[in-house]
Recover the amino acids of this structure.
């Protein structure tokens, strides 16, 4: 499913929160046999720790909160994946889990209002022109993976879940 990413040792998965960045990064890491680095390793947005993670030899790193400056942070030879998901689905997911970081995220972009997903997707149009190896993955295309969990079963997920725990 992620054949086009195989030639990269460093893969960065970013995008709006609730767009599928965590599950996509896990799917890529599993399929390619790479180390998965979750955003919690660098406290979501600690730029010093994030840059240290980028020094690893082979990884897939999950980092939606670093999206604002991904064009500045990513190594030249890294692949940067932007998750694309329907804005209404993102907003519904944010509401469902009680996500409260919209204003914080907006400030990173110098914005005061509007859904952060719209802001991030607008910024991405500029960023991708500065990133040599940029890719976009549609959330719905992840259904092809054996790790996919159907929507009905995801209703009970919280912010960091990517599979049903029984």
């Amino acid at each position: 499913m992620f054949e086009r990413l195989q030639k990269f040792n460093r893969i960065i998965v970013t995008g709006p929160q609730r767009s599928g960045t965590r599950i996509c990064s896990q799917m890529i890491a599993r399929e390619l046999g790479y180390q998965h680095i979750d955003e919690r390793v660098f406290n979501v947005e600690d730029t010093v720790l994030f840059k240290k993670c980028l020094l690893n030899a082979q990884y897939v790193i999950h980092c939606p909160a670093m999206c604002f400056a991904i064009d500045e942070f990513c190594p030249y030879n890294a692949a940067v994946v932007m998750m694309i998901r329907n804005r209404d689905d993102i907003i519904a997911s944010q509401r469902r889990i009680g996500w409260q970081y919209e204003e914080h995220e907006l400030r990173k972009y110098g914005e005061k209002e509007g859904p952060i997903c719209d802001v991030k997707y607008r910024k991405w149009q500029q960023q991708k022109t500065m990133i040599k190896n940029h890719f976009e993955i549609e959330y719905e295309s992840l259904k092809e993976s054996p790790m996919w969990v159907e929507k009905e079963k995801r209703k009970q997920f919280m912010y960091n879940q990517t599979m049903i725990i029984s």
